[in-house]
Design brief:
Radius of gyration: 24 Å
Helix content: 25-40%
Order of helices and strands: HHHEHEH
Structural class: mainly alpha
Oligomer: single chain
Number of helices: 5
Strand content: 5-15%
Largest sheet: 2 strands, antiparallel
């Protein structure tokens, strides 16, 4: 016969497994169900907010009403077909394109920004995959050499 734990023992059991804080070097435990300890809970939002302030708004980076008009005209002229970034040879992405991607990142160069020869239509998934590859997984790490 197996022994069952008492109701008092069950009530004393933790509701969730405690995990270490996701902040590198922090030895505290995260709040139940969270990733960060009490001291670092606001850290990810603060870091993101600071990065957004440095980066500036989309309009200040050139993605204004003029860009939106050019983007829609470009996508419509190509029947909203995704160019299918990094798909297997011969494979086609069937998701409609919603993003006009700069093949070579313009990094603020106005001529490169507006050069239609540097544009390609991509769906959001293909664009996110390309961006993650170029930017080192959205963490700003240097990207490896690519054959784009």
């Amino acid at each position: 016969m197996t022994s069952q734990p008492s109701p008092a023992a069950c009530a004393a059991a933790p509701a969730a497994i405690l995990r270490p804080c996701a902040r590198p070097g922090c030895s505290a435990y995260a709040a139940a169900g969270g990733r960060w300890c009490a001291a670092h809970t606001a850290a990810p939002q603060a870091v993101r907010a600071a990065a957004d302030r440095r980066r500036g708004s989309a309009a200040s980076r050139g993605y204004d009403h003029r860009w939106q008009r050019a983007r829609l005209a470009y996508l419509a002229a190509r029947s909203y077909r995704c160019a299918g970034y990094a798909l297997a040879p011969g494979a086609a992405c069937l998701t409609p394109a919603s993003v006009v991607d700069h093949i070579v990142p313009h990094r603020g160069d106005s001529a490169l920004f507006w050069a239609e020869t540097n544009w390609q239509p991509l769906c959001k998934r293909c664009h996110d995959r390309k961006t993650a590859t170029e930017d080192g997984g959205f963490r700003g790490a240097p990207a490896a050499a690519h054959d784009f």
